[in-house]
Write a structure and sequence with these properties.
Elements (H helix, E strand, L loop, with lengths): L1 H19 L3 E3 L2 H25 L1 H6 L4 H16 L3 E3 L2 H22 L6
Antiparallel strand pairs: 1-2
Helix pairs in contact: 1-2, 1-5, 2-4, 4-5
Length: 116
């Protein structure tokens, strides 16, 4: 049940950010739900591979290259979901930062216990 709630909260964050940022476009709420699902799958599968392949650069930049990896994940989601368009790398970078912030705010509202 929490997984479905997290997907819906992420979709809500995607819709909110698409209305705020002019470089991010979401066709409808269904597309936002698909974006949330695709982002989850890409973060589980592709992101660890990118981190391993770019480990020297990530260490050299003291972890700041992880922001670039997050932007790449957002752009990949834009390629996979037809109703989600990202206008460029910098919009993807800003979107990933704001999405992470909104997700942390929304997930804190869930009241998850960190001990479990």
């Amino acid at each position: 049940m929490k997984l479905i709630l997290k997907i819906l909260l992420t979709a809500a964050a995607v819709v909110i950010l698409a209305n705020i940022l002019p470089g991010i476009h979401v066709q409808d709420y269904t597309s936002a739900i698909f974006v949330a699902i695709v982002l989850g799958v890409l973060r589980i599968t592709v992101k660890p591979l990118l981190i391993i392949f770019t480990l020297p650069v990530t260490v050299l930049t003291l972890g700041l290259f992880l922001l670039v990896i997050n932007a790449i994940i957002i752009m990949l989601a834009g390629n996979f979901v037809s109703g989600f368009v990202v206008d460029g790398f910098w919009w993807a970078l800003l979107f990933s930062l704001l999405l992470s912030f909104l997700q942390s705010v929304f997930y804190s509202l869930l009241g998850e216990n960190k001990e479990n």
